[in-house]
LmbE family protein (uncultured Cytophagales bacterium), 296 residues
Amino acid sequence: MNRFVALLAVALAAGVHYAPAQSADGKLRIIAFGAHPDDCELKASGVAALWAAQGHKVKFVSLTNGDIGHFEEAGAPLALRRKAEVETCARGLGIATEVMDIHDGELMPTLENRKMVARLIREWQADIVLFHRPYDYHADHRNVGVLVQDAAVLVAAAFFTPDTPPTKKNPVFLYYSDNFQKPYPFEPTLVVGIDEAAEKKWECIRAMPSQFADKNSWQGRTLPNVPEDAGQRQAYILEVLKKRNVDVADKYRERLVQLYGADKGRKFRYAEAFELCQYGSQPTLEELKKLFPTFR
Ligand SMILES: [Zn+2]
């Protein structure tokens, strides 16, 4: 088949099958992008575990290999260690995971990387895409935001990266929560109570000692008052991270009550929050709630 015929076949296939993007078995397909091998896990492993428990297909992608985020190790050995850690975490959550081989601290919003992100979304045939906002302290996080936003319309274009099939319709794109205020603060569209999946999230964090337990891990060195004892240190860092999920629930308590009703909404201890991106599909709040497991 020559290139023209192949492209035509892709275009016709896209036209014939234009329909709700959910796969034939009714299961959703979700892809989450993070800059480093811990970002998706910190921001979305609770909701990922809830989706996976219902048979939906979730994939985490780290766009860099995390090869400098440590004070004692670096390069290939650290990148391999971190890949193994997120793989352990993914097995526990019941999801897929992939780490791209780009150096930590060096992710750029290039055309090549835009195509890579578009291909990942198309190969996964994602209904939902989660990612960082482009307002963030870390350039890699910001560039994930730019790359996914720039891929948002292109994933449905038959002739962009035509070696992968376009998504059947434009996915829903949602940002992770963060606390940055400028130029725009995060505004939660959905706040998901994750208590039911919380243990799986903590187990995932425990599976990443290069991030959250080593004496010379990033958190081990940068958090205040970290204990010397190895066991105490891991427990202490986990408590700090748990507290962040408590803070999300408390900060957006009013939204939890709106979404779940007063009885349930007031009770959640832990939450993850997401803001609908203005690019991609624009479902109503009711349509959006149907895409998330806990609102049923
Ligand atoms: Zn990160």
The radius of gyration is 19 Å. The domain at 28-291 is CATH 3.40.50.10320 (Rossmann fold).
